Amino acid sequence: MPAVGVVPGAAAPVRACVGLGANLGDPLAQMRAAIDAIARLPATRVSSVSSVYRSAPVGYLDQPDFYNAVVALDTRLPPQALLDALLAIEQDGGRTREFRNAPRLIDLDLLLYGDEVVELPHLTVPHPRLAGRAFVLLPLAEIEPGCVVPGLGPLAALAPAVAGQAIERLGALLVR
Ligand code: AMP
Q1: This prediction's pTM
Q2: Is the CATH code 3.40.50.450 the one for domain 14-171?
Q3: Which of 8, 54, 111, 118 has fewest C-beta within 10 Å?
Q4: What spacing in Å lies between the alpha carbon of 16 and ligand 1's midpoint?
């Protein structure tokens, strides 16, 4: 019996990228816990983890800086099952949704799912705000430098547009 949500007979895993962000509690510990939980998902292997970055909040500015990272996974979970699993990990991490751009314990975004474009009622991939965010593009470029974003083109070509955003690379996010 395949695990629930796995594409029956799916031959090859898909390289998916997940963005992590946190700015309440102990952000680095929460990010490590989320990556541990992602690594325990069925039919999923974490292939790489970016450095952690600190970035200024966008939208709602009266809140602490964010810590951000990106992880690359090889997964046979289909996109919606992967998103549902990520949302469950957010819930387990104590995530609540007060208002848009609010401070948060942990935020997980499905940035890329191979070269697929996904348009489902509650899931859009590539993530619609991927291109405008230095805190996504910099860690993503670190672990998937040759990546081509479906509909947008090579990742490297997107970087100049976010060059003015306040962000600092802190170093490795030590995960088990
Ligand atoms: P937020 O907490 O602001 O990141 O928004 C989460 C909501 O956005 C979820 O309930 C998802 O259904 C929806 N959503 C749509 N596309 C994505 C995506 N690529 N990654 C994460 N959430 C998504």
Answers
A1: 0.91
A2: no
A3: 8
A4: 15
